[in-house]
Every structure is written in structure tokens, then in C-alpha cells.
Design a protein that fits this description.
Layout (H helix, E strand, L loop, with lengths): L36 H14 L9 H10 L4 H17 L19 E2 L17 H8 L4 E6 L5 E5 L6 H7 L2 H27 L6 E6 L10 H17 L4 E7 L5 H8 L5 H4 L2 E3 L5 H7 L50 H32 L1
């Protein structure tokens, strides 16, 4: 008799799948060629005219991402850009709430940013039940400080994932919804801070996948399909937002999996991926300051926040995964409950009203002073 627990996903409560908008010419056949700043500026101008952005609603850095992703093919970039806008509008992605306002809790660990205090993923009220399941079977991750280019660094302990349970007790839609929410927090909160620090736009992240402890038991095809779904979303709707990706401590068995995964990726993405074995420390330190790189990866950072630099209950740096409660963490379609989202929106509205009032007071004081 099979005693394995059966996952339960009420169809009316599980996350709705994101509406997809297929691209007829998504895949580039080769990495994008290098362009001089002058050539880039000229192509951005052509692209802006083609998408009728006379008011310059979108900055050059955004348009550049789509041009590079499509190997400078303006019409292909136009299609991907318009498809992304359709996707964001249809799925109300701009309305996805993000942490950082003191009300919306963060759904993954963060270290080293002013806009979000060092924190772990905890059992905060208002987080949907499925987020706990996604995080429970992940090996540990963290948005951990910045690299030498000013890009945020995301570290994931890939080797500690419980791939089979992740595939058994979560769905693709849940994983994708969680990933999109994380992406929005990264782009709207963390990269905004990184841009302010750098004095120019930062819209890419550097990624480290630590494969320590990885074995054949993790090369589980249903779980790999989650990876494929995430890669699909990122390449279609968040193009050119990865700076570099380092796979460290990768076992020899990974070569087999890489042959599968490689087929899902654009050549431009593949070009940014560095597969490293045990001899990776110098490569990472060339990209990331030692004080910003965790000591277990060759740096000198030992974050004092509970769980260390990259907290993981599976790697035993945390006592155990946070557990949801039915009252505080019901299963709802979004990452957060509507009640929590409503509170966040009301607080944002109040902040805007206060800011407007302060501006009016400043104007009156200026007139009186004159």
C-alpha cells in the first residue's frame, strides 16, 4: 500500500496560471554581437520610434534589454516588448505587492540592503499557504548584498533542494507565481536601491547556484520542469536581467542535466553561465568583494542574522521551516491575502496624500517667505 501523502490543491484556491503570450521569434540563434555606445544609441532611437514611445516613457536601459535579448533585431525586440506589456497587463503584474513598505512581508531571505532590513522568510500573517510549501522544499536562498558592478547577488543552495517533494507538493503555477513575486520585489525595490547607490540604472542580478550535496536524487524530471517554466518566464518577460550565473561545486552528473537545460535557453543566456567545480573561489572573488561573499563560498562574510548568509533548514543553519496556520495563512490564489494587500494599498495611499500635503505646505511657506 502506498502511504505517501497526497497533495491537495483546491482548484478554486490554487494560483491561477499566468496567461502566456507566445512569441513567434523568441529564440535567437547566436549570442548578440557587441555594439559601440554610438550604435546602441542609434538602435535605441529606432526602437523607440517603432514602439511609438514619443514621450520616452521607457528609459534607454529598458529598451536596451530587449534589443540585446533579440540580438539587435528591432522588429523581434518590438514583438517581445509588446508581448511583455500584454503579459504584465493581462496578469496585473504591476499590481503584485512587494515587501519594503513595513506591511508586506518578504518571501525570501535578504541581507545587506537599506530598503529591506536583514530578514528571513517567516510565518508572517497574510502569506498564502502555498508559499510555505515552495520554501519548505527549497534548499535555502538569499538575496545577499552586491557585486563589484553594483548588481544584487542572489545565492541558492541548489544542492539541498528536495526536488521530489517540491514536485509532489507544489504545482508549476504555484512555483511560477512565487517566482514572479520575487522578481517584482527584486526589480521594484532592490534594484531601485542598487541604482541609487551606483548612480546609474542597475537592472541585472548576479546569481550563484551552490551545488554542494547535489546527487542523482535531485535530477527529478517533474522538478526540472519547474526550472523550465521559470526560465521561460524570465527569458520572455524579464529579458537580459541576469548579469552572470555561477554554478559552483557542480558534480560530474550535472553534465547530463546541463544537456537538457541548455536546450531551453537562449544563446545569450548560455554565454553568461559559468559551470565550475571545486575551483571557483578566485572566479567568484573577481566578481564579488570578499566582504560580500559568504565564507562558505570563499569570501569573508558571516552574516550575524539568524541562519547566517544563506539560511537553510535543510542545511541545518535554521532549526526548521516556518509553518503556516489556516487562520493566518489560508490558501489563496495570490502570494498574499487580499486583506494584507488592501492594508498595503491604503497605507500607500496615505503616504501619497501626506507627501502631497507636505508639498503644498512647502509652497505656501515659500510664498510667505518671499
Amino acid at each position: 500500500m502506498n502511504s505517501r501523502p497526497v497533495p491537495f490543491f483546491p482548484p478554486n484556491l490554487s494560483p491561477k496560471p499566468f496567461l502566456a503570450f507566445p512569441l513567434t521569434s523568441l529564440s535567437a540563434t547566436m549570442p548578440p554581437p557587441k555594439k559601440s555606445p554610438e550604435e546602441q544609441k542609434e538602435l535605441i532611437g529606432v526602437f523607440r520610434a517603432v514602439i511609438a514611445d514619443e514621450d520616452c516613457k521607457y528609459d534607454d536601459a529598458v529598451l536596451l534589454r530587449f534589443l540585446v535579448a533579440r540580438s539587435w533585431d528591432v522588429m523581434a525586440a518590438k514583438q517581445q516588448f509588446e508581448t511583455t506589456i500584454q503579459w504584465r497587463t493581462a496578469n496585473k503584474v504591476d499590481e503584485v505587492p512587494v515587501a519594503g513598505d513595513g506591511i508586506i512581508p518578504c518571501i525570501y531571505p535578504v541581507r545587506g540592503f537599506k530598503s529591506m532590513p536583514d530578514s528571513n522568510f517567516d510565518a508572517a500573517p497574510g502569506i498564502s499557504d502555498y508559499v510555505f510549501r515552495v520554501c519548505k522544499y527549497m534548499g535555502g536562498s538569499c538575496l545577499h548584498k552586491i557585486d563589484k558592478e553594483g548588481c544584487p547577488v542572489y545565492i541558492e543552495r541548489l544542492g539541498y533542494h528536495d526536488a521530489k517533494k517540491l514536485a509532489t507538493f507544489t504545482t508549476t503555477d504555484e512555483v511560477v507565481n512565487y517566482h514572479v513575486a520575487c522578481n517584482e520585489f527584486l526589480h521594484r525595490v532592490i534594484m531601485k536601491e542598487c541604482s541609487e547607490r551606483a548612480g546609474h540604472i542597475i537592472n541585472k542580478e548576479t546569481v550563484i547556484f551552490d551545488c554542494t550535496n547535489m546527487g542523482w536524487h535531485q535530477f527529478h524530471m517533474p522538478a526540472l520542469q519547474f526550472l523550465r517554466a521559470i526560465a521561460d518566464v524570465d527569458q520572455k518577460y524579464y529579458p537580459e536581467t541576469m548579469n552572470k550565473l555561477y554554478l559552483v561545486n557542480s558534480p560530474s552528473a550535472f553534465v547530463v542535466v546541463w544537456k537538457i537545460v541548455k536546450g531551453w535557453l537562449d544563446p545569450g543566456v548560455i554565454e553568461k553561465i559559468h559551470i565550475l567545480g571545486k575551483d571557483y573561489k578566485k572566479v567568484l572573488l573577481d566578481q564579488i568583494p570578499a566582504e560580500n561573499l559568504p565564507s562558505f563560498l570563499g569570501g569573508t562574510c558571516t552574516c550575524s542574522h539568524i541562519g547566517g548568509c544563506v539560511p537553510s533548514h535543510i542545511a541545518k543553519t535554521l532549526p526548521g521551516p516556518p509553518e503556516p496556520t489556516p487562520e493566518a495563512n489560508p490558501l489563496v490564489p495570490g502570494v498574499y491575502t487580499e486583506e494584507l494587500v488592501k492594508r498595503s494599498r491604503e497605507a500607500a495611499k496615505a503616504r501619497r496624500a501626506n507627501a502631497a500635503m507636505e508639498q503644498e505646505i512647502t509652497k505656501v511657506e515659500a510664498k510667505v517667505g518671499a
